[in-house]
Amino acid sequence: MKRWVATIDLVTLEVESDPTFKFKCVENCGLCCERLEIPLRGEDIERIEELGYNAWEFVDYEKLFYRGDKFLGYAIKKNPVTDACVFLDPETKKCKIYNHRPLACRLYPFIFVKHGDKMEIYVKEDSFCPGINHPEGEPITREFILREYGDVIEEYRQKVIHESPKHRVKVSV
Description:
By secondary structure, the chain is of the alpha+beta class. Helices cover 25% and strands 24% of the residues.
């Protein structure tokens, strides 16, 4: 189940958000790495291969992701012993490729949906994620979004600015 938590205007960077929602990623939890099937985009595969891994080591070519009839990508492989992501260290619960992890891992538990000039942000309300509405969590403010996902937002902003002549003005981030 997903729930709306924020909308960011990709031109002005104004944010409207649900003030009752808070999030804090619980360090070394690893439950998302153990329980989710993670989709890989072509860019994710290339970035991981640049670390010296061969795609056959981490891409599960038997699990495919689609949105409607559009092919989105393959899944990341699971460790046959732990059934967790192959990059999750089973002892430390740390990701071996954290700085190069797939976009889906970076975004989780959030789902970004672009509608014209706006990016809607939803939270995937998985009961196993202890960070959702964590007592020490922070609200999904403009500062939170730009700190955690500024590069993703900027990538979409550039598309919006280039697609529409009325948005050719650069807004500083």
